[in-house]
Amino acid sequence: MQKWEYLRLTVDYRGENEVYYAVSSGIATLNRDDKKNSKDLQNYIENLGSEGWELVNVYQDSQLCEICHFKRQIE
To answer: Model's pTM, two decimal places?
Structure first.
């Protein structure tokens, strides 16, 4: 039987292309003290993919907040 682990990425935006804050399973990944943009977020998500994480769902909590769910198989 396949076993999975899950990761939840919450992203708060300040504007259309500026990421205010991102939390990955309770750990800050893009800090609000550092000005980040959508390219930084894209790079982070691409790194998750290279680590075997698969995006399975995106939920828009509000106009400036998205919640992304990822999974990867446990070997």
So the answer is: 0.81
